[in-house]
Amino acid sequence: MAKIDPIARAAAMSARGLILQAPYPGADKPWPAICKTCKRPTRSSYTSVITRGQGPCFTCGQRKSSAAAARKRAVPAEVAESKILEANAKPLETFPGTQGTWRCLCLNCLREIDVWYSSVVYSGNGACDYCSGSRQIPDADASSELLTLGLEALVPYPGSNEKWRSRCTTGRKIVDPTLRNARQTKIPCRFCAQRATDPEVAVEIMKEAGLNPLTAFPGNVKAVWRAEHIDCGKQVDAVLDKVIQRRRASCPHCVRHGFKQALPAFLYLLVHIALGAAKVGICNDGSRRIRTHELNGWRQVLVTPLSGYQAVRAEQHVLDHWLALNLPQGVTRLDMPQGGWTETVTLRDRPLPELREDFKAAVASAVKPHCSRSATDSGPSEEDGYLF
Predict the structure, then answer these.
(1) Which one, of 244, 238, 242, 229, lies nearest residue 196 by Cα?
(2) pLDDT, tens digit, for every residue of 191-232?
(3) What pLDDT is recorded for position 268?
(4) Confidence (pTM)
């Protein structure tokens, strides 16, 4: 049996990259040492390193194994570019690998983004934080983007996955798509997408304008369609194309049921911040009409006492002025279950200072200079307005 030479065995271990910290302990016993590569302590035995040919350092062995696995999993640049394009992102730099972010251009919102390849390809997440809603877009940028899609924002940006009250710039209908859906839809306005030729959509448009069709849809947006004006119950000959353009029912013989012109009344101006809209209206003294609107989120801006006849003239003056300015209706029938949606405009179309001027001009036109100025005939005063 050959004699063991501790010095030769120490030299062999040193040649494998170890700085020995103790005399030879025996072939199968741990031999304390320091790895020359990573400077970490090791306790590999002579048998495992020299006889079996294993690595002298566990830490370095793990690193080599991980590096080999990473090389095996490496993604070719052309494959990575193809995969990231499928996620609607265009690379702006050479593929850096799966361990870092990749500068790309989102093809949906056209913003520069930092993409984690593994998150998009392996986990199935979206490439763009802005489009997914995890990162908020500035209101001005979001409104500008919505406008390029054919929709005008009526309220501040709520987030890409929340319904956003807006108006179609083509048909002037009020819609509420999410920004994310608007980006992904060829025609974001549901009314324009149907072109109002679908019978169910046509009926919905008529009802939102305050008209209840009495016959089936004639099949043509320019054909006469017999309908009932919901507010007064009178029958009118409507044309769907004009209803879509004007957003308000036209009734030549409209009368107000429940409102008594011979009794004292009020002319009022209300706003609804969440809907981004304003409403003008009239009610008799003692009526709960204003309170009903307030329970549905509306707030008083101006209220003025008038006679019933003056109130009717003043309200019509405001509505005629809005119609002459071609201002579309501000809310839909579904927004106002209590009624009154046909006397509304959006605050974007008619800001509050202009609405106050409309109100004052209407009162002035309704109150004749030669009429006696009673409590019910007087024009607006400082006490009449309730401002928020």
Answers:
(1) 244
(2) 777 555 678 878 888 887 788 999 998 877 778 889 988 877
(3) 96
(4) 0.51
Which of 310, 226, 232 is CA-nearest to residue 266?
310
Q: What pLDDT shows up at residue 378?
A: 40
In this prediction, residue 256 carries a pLDDT of: 54
Residue type, 356: R
Identity at 15, one-letter amino acid code: A
- Which H or E run includes 129? helix 129-132
Query: Among positive and negative, which fits the CA dihedral 256, 259, 262, 268?
Result: negative
pLDDT for 333 beyond 60: yes
Separation CA 335–CA 341 (nearest Å)? 8
d(CA 168, CA 157): 16
For residue 36, give the amino acid letter.
K
Phi, psi values for residue 23, rounded to 5°: -65, 165
| Helices and strands: H and E segment counts in the chain | 14, 16
Pair 334, 342: CB distance under 8 Å? no
pLDDT one-digit tens code per residue, 162-201: 889 998 888 777 888 888 888 877 788 877 775 556 788 7
User: 333 forms bridges with which residues in the sheet?
Assistant: none
Q: What burial class does residue 295 get, using C-beta atoms within 10 Å of its C-beta: 0-12 exposed, 13-18 middle, 19+ buried? A: exposed
Whole-number Cα distances in Å, 30 to 18, 37, 145, 305? 13, 19, 68, 101
Contact between 270 and 313 under an 8 Å Cβ cutoff? The reply is no
Separation in Å, CA 315 to CA 127, 159, 227, 332 = 53, 37, 24, 20
Half-sphere exposure of 275 (CA within 13 A, CB side): 23
Which pLDDT score is estimated for 373? 39
Q: For residue 173, which of 145, 199, 193 has the smallest C-alpha distance? A: 193
Beta-sheet strands, E only, within 38-129? 41-42, 89-91, 101-106, 112-116
Contact (CB, 8 A) for 229 and 251: yes
> Closest by alpha carbon to 328, among 144, 191, 163, 182?
191
Looking at residue 62, its amino acid is Q
Mean pLDDT rounded to a whole number for the chain: 83
Q: How open is the CA angle 222-228-229, to the nearest 5 degrees?
A: 95
Which tops the pLDDT comparison, 280 or 388? 280
CA distance 44 to 53: 11
Tokens of 110: 């056209």
